[in-house]
């Protein structure tokens, strides 16, 4: 085979695979945020976000490629086109909207503070003064903690699992996270024994946003709108309820 | 008048920084105090670990070099473990690993020491640098020139005096260039601090990235700080070497030396 033919074959293959690529939807997921996403020992990804992602790809008729990404690099990775959308329980907030675009929400659960039962301090800036509060870095909870409890000592972690671990062993006095995630990932587990929510859920729209959506790059309205349509369809035809009930006792779609 | 002029200039700079510049330097400047505190923590733990590890390594290196009957093998195991496994894994093992045991959490060591990320880091870093320093100090002791030892014997020095006055000073001097590498490696290794919640230099960078959803501003700023620190360290060591190793340097002019002797 001559060089020219080889080159030609190479170009054809490249173009063919590129056009196939267009049919794939690359989804950024986290994999360390049970029960929304976690990794089985064999490496497969599981969880609410993962099921939703596969369902959405099905509706869009595109093959799903799940790409794992550490949380604090999620938005930079989307901007760097490592994937096309983020399906990772990302709250829709004004601060994030400066950088990226969101679909409609696909669930909305409030955030809460978790501490030892009968912790002996109030959930206020005075009560938590000097206390060690753990949050996952680059989350809405970091935002809320800095805003609501400026006198507390903020301790930042890369994953939510590490926050729970350190709360359980007593390195933290309290932690802030999604309430549902705190129940399923911690309070219901062995290590969460003797812990409870401290006070009511956090009411902080500015930091917490209006629920979790899928993130897309700006100027990508076509993808954003087709994803939003898919969310509505999944919600309307009962598929959402099926996925929801696999993980949760309540409907997490929220108001 | 002057006031409003400077404000517009600052506004102009902010505009450039946010919209035109690839790196939002005004944002970095606004949070520069976090980087300074981070640098302080990085230096604090690195320097303390180097001091403590250095002190630990001297007796261990002597025991290894003279092949002490009972101590040689355990120390070899110790250095092999700390040189043979990554610093990150060692740190995780102490910080996250030990905490899983109820007995550790209830022991007297938990409250002031093992529950604190700062102490965990200091312990691991100290042992790690002690492992490396022991081995190259041992090498340095073993390669003491035979002539120096003969001379010391000829003066009638006891083994202890010889160790104190000849072998160790000579070994320290010859180990100095290798030690400057160890110091720089420790500084670079200290980024592990940010993985166990400590706000070191890299931690400050990750905080900035996390807070404003940036990709690299925090990392580049941290990098610049590390470069400055390394520059200062290597300058310091080259001055120290000039001072300490003056007797090992090539004479600049042989004739000058002869003339001096004749004079």
- CATH topology of the largest domain in chain A, which one? D-Maltodextrin-Binding Protein, domain 2
Most extensive chain-chain interface: A-B, 23 and 20 residues
Largest sheet of chain B: none
Using the coordinates above, name the CATH class of the largest domain in chain A: Alpha Beta
- Name the shape of chain A in a single word: elongated
Number of helices of chain A: 10
Q: Which segments of chain A are poorly predicted (pLDDT under 50) over 5 or more consecutive residues?
A: none
CATH superfamily label of the largest domain in chain A: Periplasmic binding protein-like II
Kindly give the count of domains of chain A. 2
Q: How many discrete domains of chain B? A: 1
What coarse outline of chain B follows from CA principal-axis ratios? flat
The spatial strand order of the largest sheet of chain A comes to 4-1-5-12-6
- Please outline the major beta sheet of chain A: 5 strands, mixed
Average predicted confidence as pLDDT of chain B: 89
> Approximately what portion of the residues of chain A adopt beta-strand conformation?
15-25%
Order of helices and strands of chain B: HHHHHHHHHHHHH
Multimerization state: heterodimer
Report on the structure:
The complex is a heterodimer of chains A (255) and B (263). Chain A is α/β, with parallel strands linked by helices. In chain A, strand 2 (38-39) and strand 3 (45-46) form a beta hairpin. Chain A is built from ten helices and twelve strands. Chain A folds into two domains: 24-108 and 210-247, Periplasmic binding protein-like II (D-Maltodextrin-Binding Protein, domain 2); 111-207, D-Maltodextrin-Binding Protein, domain 2. Chain A has a five-stranded mixed beta sheet. Chain A has a five-stranded mixed beta sheet with strand order 9-8-10-7-11, with helices on both faces. Chain A has helices at residues 3-23, 48-60, 74-79, 94-97, 140-148, 160-168, 179-187, 205-208, 221-236, 239-247, and strands at 24-29, 38-39, 45-46, 63-68, 85-91, 101-107, 111-116, 132-136, 153-157, 174-178, 195-197, 212-216. Chain B is mainly alpha-helical and 263 residues long. Chain B has one domain: MetI-like fold (Orthogonal Bundle). Chain B has helices at residues 2-20, 25-30, 32-65, 72-84, 87-97, 102-106, 110-114, 117-142, 146-154, 159-189, 201-212, 217-244, 254-262. In chain B, helix 3 (32-65) packs antiparallel against helix 11 (201-212), helix 4 (72-84) crosses helix 8 (117-142) and helix 8 crosses helix 10. The termini of chain B are far apart.
